Batch of 2 targets.
Target 1
Amino acid sequence: MHCRYLCAKQYIINAMKIYPLLLSLLCSSAMCAETLHLSTPSTSLVLDATPGNRLSLLHYGGRVTDADIKNLDGGIDAYPAYGIYPEHEAALSITHADGGMVTDLSVDSVTKSQGDDGAEITTITLRDSAYPVTVKVNYRTYPGEEIIESWAEITNGEKGEITLNRFMSAFLPVRMGDVWLSSLYGSWANEARIEQRPLTHGVTMIKNKDGVRNSHTSHAEVMLSLDGCPSENNGRVIGAALEYTGNYKLMIDTGDSNHHRFFAGINEENSAYRLKKGETFVTPPLALTYSAEGLSGASRNFHRWGRNHRLHAGDTPRKILLNSWEGVYFNIDEKGMDSMMADIASMGGELFVMDDGWFGTKYHRDSDNAALGDWTVDTGKLPHGIDGLLDAADRHGIKFGIWIEPEMTNTVSELYEKHPEYVIKAPHRNPTTGRGGTQLVLDMANPKVQDIVFEFVDTLMTRYPRIDYIKWDANAPIMEHGSQYLPADRQSHLYIDWHKGLTATLDRIRRAHPDVTIQACASGGGRANWGMLPWFDEFWTSDNNDALQRIYMQWGTSYFFPAIAMASHISAAPNHQTFRRIPVKFRADVAMSGRMGLELQPRDMTEEERTICRNAVNDYKQVRHIVQLGDLYRLLSPYDGKGSASLMYITPEKDDAVFFWWKTETFMNQQLPRIPMAGLDPDATYTVTELNRIDNTPLPCEGKSYTGRYLMDQGLELPLTHNVDYHKNTDYSSRVLRLTVSK
Ligand code: GLA
């Protein structure tokens, strides 16, 4: 039944007298309320959804009461469409079947439904009085979570085709004041760097056009600090994360109104999308959060929701692994793999992952210029095949994982020889190649390509069910605009249909193989986004394993993503990317703050390095649940230039915590700040134990107990160097402390 007909006030009053039960039933499916209050435990989003009017946003922020709601005014169009007052940026722009450019939407009805995981979805259906176009604006809340997701569904009811010129997921007006934007920028091997700036007049645009991966450079997530210069643990913050893994656009338009106008969605550039009559376009969701506990508070909201509802197997602690890449690169062979398995097992590790270089029959994967797509074992390197490796892993008492790059091929491959029509390629031109001078991207918009990708992964997992882990790589962008599958009038759908094809294939893979752990790697950190993680257990944070630079990259990554998803490996010294020599203690202390693993040739380690790694693996096992499933409190940012950085994780019960401190620069007699902790129970008493200890004597705080109140007020005094034998001194210093509530 249409809400419009139910909403006459007289009708409601009579109905309430006569049919209270009937009314409540009707109102739960087709709500009558004009004001919608969507809430989380401590936030509210309030909309005026009066039928016949524009949908307008009255409030997004801290939780409000009914009394407050009654007095809210000054609503702003919650999903502005292009056409009337065209000088303003819009969330939606349509060329109608008759060429008309104006869309003017008003509320038609409101419905509520149950989503997965106990989520509640509120859908406001908007219609245009001149054109039969329907826009559903959706908001999703989850019990106990501080996230509200918003997305749009646009349906063409016109006789002919319409073209979507812009199709943002959501729009949010943010009241001007002293609002600061925190965003992530970067590049390959330097991902997730933080940039913070006050919002000023004009347009701030953050976007991506890679086509395949979207987080090497800027990220599709931002934080807005509403009370001036961003602070980790104080002040009001709005966080926004677009749940999309393709081209995106985040735009903040600050003009002559009182509001910064924030838009987020798929990047519409070169992606105009045509809808036939009856077709619907669904945008990816934008996840919004609000916290009055600073940036760290907003991060905790994303982490908790992500682990509970978005990340694949987000509640299951991850294994400690050794990955073969930086240890042997393409030089895979059976003996070498066996020895690496023995080494990681002897250090207490739980999983070995064989990286690139294991496949190819006609063409061999000896470097990056051949064989992608030819997923047959190179028996010259691995005479006993994958079964031989799985048997070896069993013998060593660990699990086995394998590297693949299924969305790609090389010009030098049997796949390309047989199916040149499967690759991305513009008409009348030779395909543009990437890595190794031969890499090509498969056209995931083509259902036949989706099938071969599915069948490859499905066959691998069906034939070798003991495979525990897949490292799924993606090492090329879309290098030219051209689908050999899409018709001429749908070429502009390439970027979007490519990702629809990818996610549909991932759906099939996950339905068939829900238990295998899959890492989203993309030349390092190219796929750290909430659009990818429902099918993946983690992402490779960066191809740069330099522990010092990782502190900065992991700090940025932690704004939006939990430690359980952030792969962080101890690599060799000198480091293969920066050539910096960092002692293994410091490398381990950085890796331990994420999903710890190793990425080196254990045979090249000294006995002392092995011992430190073995101890680190053992210590990490004791606190893994705190790091991976606990709440993050960032304490001192490396970006503040104070010579050190610090953060901590704590269990939700606040009975067990791990505190990390790393010195980021070294000068003689430097004076570094003492770090007040956060997130502890002020009234509980915590006992301190140092992990990964290398010092000859214990820290003064070792074994001592302090109240949470004291630790949060004063922190602990930490020496700036390690107390080790003279020749073992280095310019690096770091501490990992466990704080356990005395029972
Ligand atoms: C990418 C990944 C690396 C490694 C190589 C293999 O660069 O990010 O970790 O797997 O591919 O070719």
Target 2
Amino acid sequence: MKKRAIITGITGQDGAYLAKSLLNKGYEVHGMARRSSHSGITEHRLRWLGIATLVKLHEANLSDLASLMRVIQEVQPDEFYNLGAQSFVATSWSQPIVTANITAVGVTNALEAIRIIKPNTRFYQASSSEMYGLVQQPVQNERTPFYPRSPYAAAKLYGHWITVNYRESFGMHASSGILFNHESPLRGIEFVTRKVTDGVARIKLGLATELRLGNIDAKRDWGHARDYVEAMWMMLQEDEPDDYVIATGVTTSVREMCQLAFDRVGLDMNDHLVIDEALFRPSEVDILLGDPAKAKQKLGWAPTVNLKEMIDEMVDADLSRLSGALAHS
Ligand code: NDP
Ligand code: GDP
């Protein structure tokens, strides 16, 4: 019999890549999607990957326990990947309570629904390197203390610890992946890598002249989403649930990442980049750098794509997306 998986956040970047990966592994893939007035549009990433008709979508919301219970009752999943969240750090200052309801309490809703309906379901929680915030060690691993610097990070910290707690309290197979930033052509346009690759493509095509950014001195450990969703699956195949850092072990500034994008199209960054104070954050995470040694040793996981390869892929995808739109206009 096919293994059955439920993915919350299936319409997001990671949800789409994970769904594709699980389908390739022979899973029956179910996704929870919240109701939208833009029906048909929210599944654009699943269509991009050619899998929109291969997954079964169920209407549910992480803030509605009953909706989660109903879907779990119907699907009887073997694995549950909790990727749904208000995931954008900047928005977490303008909508801190929504962020807490979905990104923090939503995790408890998912765990409770599983505990009540099918407690042997294996559970994955999408935790974040943002939890390290004001970093307490130059290189962060599973034992590094956390210091969240945004309402998003504080909510993720709750989600992380409630996952650990359900594992310890109820013996649930609940694992938390502390994933460092990961990107792709399917990354939301508001995140800095995609904002840059889309912006550079627009400038190259004559659709824009400038790219406005905030703090370009910030440094991140960036990997590719396609690699990172494999780590999620690997965690749930282990006999014992655990927590893992997933990272590349390389950190790069926003400035250097931006340079890679401009280099790809042969333009001079200094002719187009504008620093906008309004885009600086109330409190910043200056640098993140992860140590994925445990994931490598226990899961056999390693990243396969470096930052330059990923930025090239993203710029090329944005160029062809925008060229296609121009051709149809
Ligand atoms: P996205 O923002 O692309 O996707 C978020 C998903 O959550 C979307 O499918 C969204 O649905 C869904 N969602 C939002 N609110 C609700 C709700 N109330 N009920 C149900 N679903 C909801 O994020 P990513 O794919 O990039 O990230 C996946 C997870 O991993 C997130 O939890 C994120 O915080 C976490 N993470 C991501 C990192 C990264 O670098 N990408 C790093 C570390 C952690 P809709 O389409 O309707 O908006
Ligand atoms: P985050 O690490 O989850 O917050 O991912 P982001 O991609 O949103 O931001 C990464 C870093 O880029 C942060 O330190 C931001 O302050 C910095 N940054 C600089 N300019 C921008 C911008 O215009 N948009 C975004 N999203 N981030 C920016």
